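Predict the assembly for these two chains.
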Amino acid sequence: MDTFFQQIINGLVQGSVYAMVALGYTMVYGILGLINFAHGEVVMVGAMVALSVIQLSISYGLPPILALLIGLMVSIAACMALGYSIERVAYRPLRKAPRLAPLITAIGVSMVLQTLAMIIWGREYHAFPSLLPNGSHILFGAIITEVQILIILVALAMMGGLLLLVHRTRLGRAMRAVAEDPSIATLMGVNTNSVISTTFMLGSALAATAGVMISANYGIAHYYMGSVLGLKAFTAAVLGGIGNMYGAMVGGLLLGLIESLGAGYIGDLSGGFLGSHYQDVFSFFVLISVLIFRPSGLLGERVAERS
Amino acid sequence: MTTPELKSLLHVRNLKMSYGGIQALRGVDLDVAHGELIALIGSNGAGKTTLLKVLAGLLQPASGTVHYRGTPLMHHAAHQLVQEGLTLVPEGRGIFARLTVKENLQMGSYCRSDEPSIDRDMQNVYELFPRLFERHKQLAGTLSGGEQQMLALGRALMSRPTLLMLDEPSMGLAPMMVTKIFETIQEISARGVSILLVEQNAKLALEVAQRGYVLENGLITSSDSAAKLLVSPAVRQAYMGS
């Protein structure tokens, strides 16, 4: 039973991170019908920028919690600027191009960002300093650290805030209107370009936060960390039904749980033949199964392919 | 000294527009004065919808001039025109199916920031269409065709239009609903809103309008008072089947 609860906790933590990143994929898809494959790299840039700012702040003698806050803020700002630029430079000129063009561009942007990060931060793994009190609690016989509690709480707060924004504000209404029909939204006086930019910036802010969370949880940051994480978050978005924000949240949490329960039990199930390092297999097994059996995802509507 | 550009609310001269080699508009002249209700009739493919889309800024014309309130419109982005009081209710209504009825109306007032009068205008729309109030929390996609047309009209009113352009408001509606919609159009006109009404149902449109234009193959072929067009043999022959 201890393993079970421990894996549930790990799964919820990992799942909150997936959910936050998946929201970025799903919001952009909802509004542009585009899968922004560079989104995972925004998570990585978020972690890396935060790392550098934190190292700098600490070298100036700032207290760890303040350093973390400054790191997070700078990283959110940097990623929002990055998300804005990606859309402006790479996707907007291709708004009317065939669907394949922006998709290939997205992969290109992702490679450029990865390479730039490698040049700036090097190929080595960086230790992400632990800045929060290292306490932990016992819950149902499982250990939960204060960092993990904080990750879950911040993720819930940010996702709640995003839902309020999208469903209760003028900007959110405009976002949903543009997602449904950009030219009619224009007739209402909505500047669709600025709404699209805002969507990229919101998704990037969540991505930056997720990058800081995951680095703080594992104590590590690396120029390559965004690519598998991005694919998994994309899987979460597809699992929940891409384009659907609740779907991204549910899909993220569910994928985190599937992955961590799978990793926790795969050793026992295979008689020790397969170890927990096979955990990535579960995510991609989920992705393939969803694509085969329920391409619209758990909460997605069955809609005809947009051309 | 007043030039015609300054006198009329909307002043269109020699407007041309083509889609990939096909000329949809071949030099359209049209005027709407303050407070007028103008009918623009014509058959399918005559260029009516294209004309409205150009006027609303959704399409860029090849050449020609459009003056609105005395200033040229060509350099405005589409989303800026609503603020100027130029509102289009597009063909097929164009409501946001996944937004609620109330949210659709709020989208209509997207460009305004005068909260108290927005609330008052919403009350007015609900009084005009009590059905919309009954359903204000429902998703707009669940409304019937007639209710969706009411919503499209109500949403347009929420922008406080000076010139309201309506593209085929009767399309696909039951006769009773058409009557209701046309009564409402007259009521909106009586409140001083200028209206450019595009209709395939020529008889209905000319009965409510003061003046009318006939658009054929991208050209205005006749323009006159609505009463005269209603009895013109050519118009009756081509658009009223008698």
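The mean pLDDT of chain B is 92. The longest strand of chain B covers residues 22-32.
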